[in-house]
């Protein structure tokens, strides 16, 4: 099958000779975000190519207004053309005329997430994250699919030619929702998990050079898989094949691991999000291909007995929702300090690729990123139409997935099973086929070993706990 881009209408801009910035109108859905919105503001302040008009929409309008005030402060420290920020009163208002739509919402609440974790734990299923697969990811998808379906219909009606970036998990199912509800949508799913292996490779090169010369953006990888269960079969840096060096690194750290934390994070964050990469290294031992995502996500795609029953042994933590609540409160305090001027904004570049992607789509330099797209042949061993994660080329013509190749056969079987389940879950929710849901829930590798009656009881409890945000036609699925 030919792999081709989704080609959109080319935009032409009338710019004054003195202003070479590329104009772009961005609708940010979930514009009260305390994480992704702030990342985008800092990135736009650091960027020198775009002139952005950002419209923030959130069901919590006060949060969107707060972020608009914070955005104005970031505009004041811009290195290029200052971005403008406004809080939109409605989704339609935010979308009208948008060139780019960014979706970053929380499907439900932290209380819902706490139940996604606590109920399975009571039945003997620990989850490190619980937002992608397993019982937590499944029930989160039940809450989120109708929300993304509503957003997709609004994009169809108000911004049908916009480029759409989904940042919300479960990434595969929700990016699939956008395409299923609005088949003409030009949407991709954006995730930074692959940054982890790129950082490792940059560190290997820096250790060999004896100086901190390289960063993760200097590392190129060929990505294969589905979101949070990704792998790479080629690695290069500065024209050099880095796969031999990486495999040597894995063998050297196979037993004790290699500690990896996110730069700039505090000790508590490192405790719950840092890993030793032992799961990734063990998957390399088992399947012969480097794993690219973080251990906390990778572990959830396999039976509990593989990794989740002994997270300390494998060097990662089960992140409690209570920590997320504390972290959110700290972010609220930082946001208020930014809004009032007690804290100074910084024009800094995050790990995210979104601004580079937008520049390319608006006619600037082409850009290559790993993203989530419908499978039109870029992964021939996975189901056609399912959402897969590979590299893609961003240009003014659209987003063109790169042919990634095939996974090792045994691993491909595992990935295909998850991809099929995700596609079937999406279809069942959109078709209001509640009878199909429990068999799909039951077939997940974390749930499958359970006695059927216990699995039914767990599913019933999880549905009851989240029923306040479920559509009526899904509430009786248990």
Automatic annotation (TrEMBL):
Name of this chain's protein: Alpha-galactosidase
Reported cofactor(s): NAD(+); Mn(2+)
Cofactor descriptive note: Binds 1 NAD(+) per subunit.
GO biological process: carbohydrate metabolic process
Keyword set, alphabetical order: Carbohydrate metabolism, Cobalt, Glycosidase, Hydrolase, Iron, Manganese, Metal-binding, NAD, Nickel
Membrane spanning residue stretches: none
UniProt binding sites for substrate: 169
Pfam families associated with the record: Glyco_hydro_4, Glyco_hydro_4C
The Glycosyl hydrolase family 4 C-terminal domain, residue ranges: 223-447
PANTHER family: 6-PHOSPHO-BETA-GLUCOSIDASE-RELATED, ALPHA-GALACTURONIDASE
């Amino acid at each position: 099958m030919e792999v081709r881009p989704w080609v959109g209408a080319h935009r032409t801009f009338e710019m004054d000779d003195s202003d070479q910035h590329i104009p772009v109108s961005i609708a940010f859905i979930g514009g009260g975000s305390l994480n992704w919105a702030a990342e985008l503001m800092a990135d736009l302040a650091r960027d020198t190519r775009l002139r952005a008009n950002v419209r923030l929409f959130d069901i919590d309008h006060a949060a969107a207004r707060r972020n608009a005030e914070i955005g104005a402060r970031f505009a004041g420290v811009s290195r290029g053309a200052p971005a403008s920020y406004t809080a939109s009163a409605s989704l339609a208002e935010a979308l009208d005329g948008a060139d780019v739509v960014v979706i970053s919402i929380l499907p439900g609440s932290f209380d819902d997430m706490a139940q996604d974790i606590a109920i399975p734990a009571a039945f003997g299923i620990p989850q490190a994250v619980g937002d992608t697969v397993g019982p937590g990811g499944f029930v989160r998808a039940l809450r989120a699919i109708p929300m993304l379906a509503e957003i997709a219909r609004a994009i169809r009606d108000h911004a049908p030619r916009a480029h759409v970036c989904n940042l919300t998990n479960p990434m595969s199912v929700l990016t699939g929702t956008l395409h299923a509800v609005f088949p003409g949508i030009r949407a991709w799913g954006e995730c930074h998990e692959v940054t982890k292996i790129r950082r490792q490779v940059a560190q290997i090169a820096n250790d060999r050079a004896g100086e901190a010369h390289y960063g993760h953006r200097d590392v190129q990888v060929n990505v294969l898989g589905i979101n949070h269960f990704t792998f790479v079969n080629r690695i290069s840096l500065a024209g050099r094949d880095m796969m031999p060096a990486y495999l040597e690194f894995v063998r050297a750290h196979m037993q004790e691991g290699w500690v990896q934390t996110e730069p700039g994070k505090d000790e508590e964050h490192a405790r719950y999000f840092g890993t030793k990469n032992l799961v990734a290294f063990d998957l390399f031992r088992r399947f012969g291909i480097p794993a690219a995502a973080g251990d906390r996500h990778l572990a959830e795609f396999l039976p509990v007995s593989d990794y989740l029953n002994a997270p300390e042994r494998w060097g990662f933590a089960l992140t409690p929702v209570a920590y997320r609540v504390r972290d959110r409160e700290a972010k609220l305090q930082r946001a208020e300090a930014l809004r009032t001027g007690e804290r100074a904004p910084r024009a800094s570049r995050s790990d995210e690729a979104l601004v580079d992607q937008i520049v390319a789509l608006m006619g600037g330099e082409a850009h290559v990123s790993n993203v989530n797209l419908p499978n039109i042949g870029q992964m021939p061993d996975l189901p056609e139409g399912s959402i897969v994660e590979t590299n893609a080329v961003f240009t003014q013509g659209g987003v063109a997935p790169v042919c990634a190749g095939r996974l090792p056969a045994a691993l491909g079987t595992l990935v295909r099973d998850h991809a099929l389940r995700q596609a079937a879950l999406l279809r069942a929710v959109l078709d209001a086929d509640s009878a199909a849901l429990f068999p799909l829930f039951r077939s997940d590798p974390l749930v499958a070993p359970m006695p059927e009656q216990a699995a039914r009881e767990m599913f019933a409890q999880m549905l009851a706990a989240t029923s306040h945000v479920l559509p009526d036609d899904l509430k009786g699925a248990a």
